[in-house]
Structure prediction request, 302 residues.
Amino acid sequence: MTSLANWRGHHLSATNIRHLKNADPYHGIYGGARPGEVENIGSPLCDPKDAGKLYAKEVQECINYDTNGQPAALFLEGLQGVGGLVQWADGYLEECFKIAKKNNMITICDEVQTGFGRFGSHYWGFKSQIEDEANYPDAITMAKSMGNGFPMSGIACTEELGDAFFGKLTFNTYGANPLACVVGETVMDIIEDENLSENVDKLGKMLISGMNVLKHKYEKLGDVRGRGFMIGIEIVESKETKMENLADAIKLWDLLREEGVLVGKGGFYGNCLRIQPPMCWNKEDVKFFLEVLDLCLEKIHK
Ligand SMILES: Cc1ncc(COP(=O)(O)O)c(C=O)c1O
Prediction:
């Protein structure tokens, strides 16, 4: 289902899947502000308040012109993970789900990376961007942090959607594995008992503001974005062209590793670095990371 061709291996997308354009304020044609912000960080084509809705118009256009008019479902992440930590233009997620519901589609939010407190301010990513509960997704998918490394996944959905499975034969060899259930419950207890969401919210803000300072210092640090402990940076040729700069992104990735910092790579071109640290980080870890990032960015600018 992914829109990233390099993750589809030898396979084409299933023919009954359509991909929407990326509602990315940094590269997208309307620019836009990120949730909670007012600055239009991309193209000044429109008022940033309107960008989310303008991008979302594509959902209806896709239904009208590229499907039989009755597609089954709309599937979106709350903030792209492997896609390069792209944060939707403000209002996009809510408007997309609203349009999908109007067209009788099932709405699904992928919380595999954004769920379980990683957003800091909200336990689930979608809740940070949807004001009207009527526009909440019908289902969320979960994995990764759900077991904190233990292999498990899950889905939560509305009663109506769940009821549709009654009387149908569904089967999953490992479904409801009792050990996985204990692990999952323990993970949720620890997130709550140790106030990890609050920790992520507080330190995430520190991280982003520290990285924004670096953005103004270094020409090749084109963009800093994200929420909580889901932060992305984009390495570009220059702030003006915003052209992907994979060579320097890889160099930076390696330099960080040599200094003891492991980050992920993302985006179609691999020029986005994904900073998604463990939720138990403390202030010292943040300070150390920012110092090391500063040092390594300096090296790729020499
Ligand atoms: C956002 C997102 N959704 C889904 C998946 C796939 O999850 P799983 O391996 O549990 O199928 C991944 C990565 O593996 C992911 O990053």
